[in-house]
Amino acid sequence: MAAVQECTDGDKEGSSKLIISASRRTDIPAFYSDWFLNRIRAGYAFVRNPMNVHQVSKVSLDRGVVDCVVFWTKNPGPLLPSLHLLREYQYYFQFTLNPYDVRIEPRLPEKSTLVETFKRLSDTVGPHRVIWRYDPVMLGADFDITYHEKQFAILASSLEGYSSKCIISFVDFYKKVEARLKALRVVPVDESQKRIVALRLATVARSYGLTLETCAEDIATDEFGIEHARCIDPVLIQGLLGARIKVEKDKNQRDPCGCVASIDIGMYNTCRHGCRYCYANFSQSSIDNNVASYRPESPLLCSELTNKDKVSERECKSCVMLQRSLID
Q1: I want to staple 315 with a disulfide (CB 3.0 to 4.6 A). Which of 15, 238, 282, 324 is the partner?
Q2: Where are the domains of the chain?
């Protein structure tokens, strides 16, 4: 799962414009590709509301209403052989690739393997559909600003030509991860440090043909040529569709987030990467219980319906405007 900023994720009921997020809550391409493809075949998925687990939404995955699927992943390798099954859908990937070792990201493949996976994905779907995420940026005893500048340059060199954009963000000390971060001697990043990191990484990025953007950060970086990212990006989605879309900013995200509205079909406490900075996993026992409940054929991810659950069909519709043109 991408290490994006934590959101309120209220998943309010009601009419929804259908951009599917798969998923901020877990790494569906890495661990649950077979479930996702089964749901595509079925044309719908059930999704538990993380704020009220017995409130379940039936979300349409029908091509007639799904405008785009945004995948968030640290390892899309398991999904790669099946991408042809999504040929009727528009989609793109947020691919997180960081410089950290097994102390921080204990269950990821070797970095060299992930770089090759990134390249294969880009060759398959095109560089414009693979956004590189370098996040979260953490500072501490073992990774200072110079460390990030050097490691970012190594990765950028390896990925040159395979993506046109990199999105960065800085670690947040949420209560659920604070103890883990302190154990790793990670320290909070202040505004001046963020600006220095952003400037140095932007300079490196430009030398490799990359645009650098920040995710849900309220620091001023315009002077460095760094824009605020919209990870669920209406401009990119319009380009993929060849049509204009009308969709509002995602009200479930924090104010600095530029994403437009989407429906997330993932589930917290199901990602098996074990990254120490991850806010989407609360406890190992919850992960173990949820993973043990996983069945690829279930309409719910890592869960089964019970008699306590209330299922509501979510009213969904395409956000493509009737005038199918990018020109007013």
Answers
A1: 15
A2: 16-317
Q: Which two tokens stand for residue 89?
A: 């859908």
Residue corresponding to tokens 């996040």 = 135
Query: How far is 12 from 9, CA to CA, in rounded Å?
Result: 8
Q: What is the pLDDT along the chain (328 residues), one digit of tens a residue?
A: 444 433 334 444 444 569 999 999 999 999 999 999 999 999 999 999 999 999 999 999 999 999 999 999 999 999 999 999 999 999 999 999 999 999 999 999 999 999 999 999 999 999 999 999 999 999 999 999 999 999 999 999 999 999 999 999 999 999 999 999 999 999 999 999 999 999 999 999 999 999 999 999 989 898 999 999 999 999 999 999 999 999 999 888 888 898 999 999 999 999 999 999 999 998 899 999 999 999 999 999 999 999 999 999 988 778 888 554 443 3
**Coil, helix or strand for 91?**
strand
**Peptide bond preceding 23: is omega within 30 degrees of 0, i.e. cis?**
yes
Tokens for 147? 């460390």
| DSSP code of residue 213 | E
